[in-house]
Design brief:
Length: 69
């Protein structure tokens, strides 16, 4: 991948992190039934995966630019 592709991947990863956050905080407040609790769990997991992907994209871009973490 070129630098431009890594930068685009970084922006895409950030957008996905933001999307999963919006979905997570979009859940209505209050007591959760079994179905809502399962949905919350799925959304938290998706957000964590997106956060790790963003971290990976940052590290790839850093390495490409010769940074040392």
């Amino acid at each position: 991948m070129t630098g431009d592709h890594h930068a685009a991947a970084l922006l895409d990863a950030f957008a996905e992190l933001r999307r999963t956050w919006d979905e997570l905080v979009g859940l209505p407040p209050g007591p959760l039934d079994k179905t809502e609790l399962a949905l919350l769990s799925e959304r938290v997991s998706a957000h964590l995966v997106a956060a790790v992907a963003l971290g990976d994209a940052i590290e790839i871009l850093r390495a490409e630019q010769g940074g040392n973490g």
